[in-house]
Task: inverse folding
């Protein structure tokens, strides 16, 4: 096997392992984003940094140890998994997606909020990577079965990446803002957060009623 083929095969495995280690919604969102834009992977900052470091190490392993193909692949794959899983989400972001103490949601006309929420749901300017909520969730796509459960409930991504045992619906929106969409969370108590929450609540009911 030529050096170039070894490099491509190793980087392919690295990328696959990295994608497995980040949240499933991020993986799907990134896939949809790349199809339309051809841009680099829009992972959360920590995973993106891990990917860059891992790829650099992988290239060094292949080019510097052409004769030790098996050893290079095993080491590079292990380092990629360790970097991606070890970085995680920063403490400040973990705090930012949680309801603050004494939180009071914005109250307004439900129909008006849902209309605004639908616009925001399809607005890719909310993200830093060109994604919108609809990138993943058009027509009820990519919701897990737990989406049928009344909030707050357990969400695997919330527990794994943010240390949250139970997640409220507006907290789930904040998690999606921070993770797949790589953006700042919405302001707690804002009309925008209330609007997305109400619209998503409506989408949840559609998902529950879906035959």
Result:
């Amino acid at each position: 096997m030529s050096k170039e083929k070894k490099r491509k095969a190793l980087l392919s495995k690295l990328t696959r392992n990295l994608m497995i280690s980040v949240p499933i919604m991020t993986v799907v969102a990134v896939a949809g984003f790349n199809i339309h834009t051809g841009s680099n992977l829009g992972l959360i900052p920590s995973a993106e940094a891990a990917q860059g470091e891992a790829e650099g190490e992988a290239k060094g392993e292949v080019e510097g140890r052409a004769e030790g193909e098996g050893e290079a692949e095993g080491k590079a794959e292990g380092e990629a998994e360790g970097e991606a899983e070890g970085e995680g989400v920063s403490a400040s972001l973990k705090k930012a997606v949680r309801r603050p103490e004494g939180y009071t949601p914005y109250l307004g006309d439900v129909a008006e909020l849902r209309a605004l929420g639908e616009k925001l749901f399809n607005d890719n300017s909310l993200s830093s990577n060109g994604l919108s909520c609809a990138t993943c969730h058009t027509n009820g796509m990519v919701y897990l079965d737990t989406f049928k459960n009344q909030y707050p409930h357990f969400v695997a991504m919330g527990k794994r990446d943010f240390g949250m045992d139970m997640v409220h619906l507006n907290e789930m929106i904040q998690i999606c803002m921070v993770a797949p969409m790589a953006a700042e969370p919405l302001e707690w108590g804002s009309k925008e957060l209330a609007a997305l929450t109400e619209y998503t609540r409506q989408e949840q009911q559609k998902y529950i009623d879906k035959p």
Notes: Residues 13-50, 76-86 have pLDDT under 50 and may be disordered.
